[in-house]
Design a protein that fits this description.
Structural class: alpha/beta
Distance between the termini: 41 Å
Strand order of the largest sheet: 2-1-3-4-6-5
CATH topology: Rossmann fold
CATH superfamily: Response regulator
Number of strands: 6
Order of helices and strands: EHEHEHEEEHH
Radius of gyration: 14 Å
Number of domains: 1
CATH class: Alpha Beta
Oligomer: single chain
Length: 149
């Protein structure tokens, strides 16, 4: 079984560190390398040139609870990489869990969800578009890279 290169992209260094530790502890046989980057700080995405070739991305959907920056980034990897999109700190109109997303906190087992994504299909652009249709906040175009803190 091929070991995966995993990229973690969230809004906080602390959250990245917790996810990285969790992944290393629970999936040592499945992961070769873990890259981390922070939403709102594009320079962190490009500190390692190999991050773009990650086999799997774990991405927080929103930065600052209102900017769908993470969702837009995940959408760029549709059809290319496995993706687990995390909706943190709130519940919305979308289901708690889907093919490539999970709301946190969750009643679902996070370990099982990560394993499902590792073993599952790569989400396609149509999957992201369907999610946008169900939840308009994901396609909010009012945020650009100029408005980050």
């Amino acid at each position: 079984m091929k070991k995966l290169k995993v990229a973690v992209l969230t809004g906080a260094e602390e959250f990245n560190a917790v996810l990285e530790k969790y992944l290393r502890l629970l999936f040592p046989e499945r992961i070769s390398v873990i890259y981390t980057a922070r939403l709102g700080d594009p320079t962190t995405l490009f500190q390692n040139k190999d991050i773009d070739n990650s086999d799997m991305w774990i991405i927080e959907a929103f930065s600052d609870f209102c900017n769908p920056e993470g969702f837009r980034t995940a959408k760029k990897y549709a059809g290319k990489s496995k993706i687990l999109l995390l909706f943190t700190g709130f519940t919305g109109k979308i289901p708690e869990e889907g093919k490539f997303w999970l709301q946190i906190p969750s009643s679902k087992n996070v370990f099982k969800k990560i394993r499902e994504v590792m073993e599952g299909e790569i989400p396609e652009i149509q999957d992201f578009q369907k999610l946008e249709e169900k939840w308009q906040r994901l396609s909010d175009k009012s945020y650009t890279h100029h408005h980050h803190r």
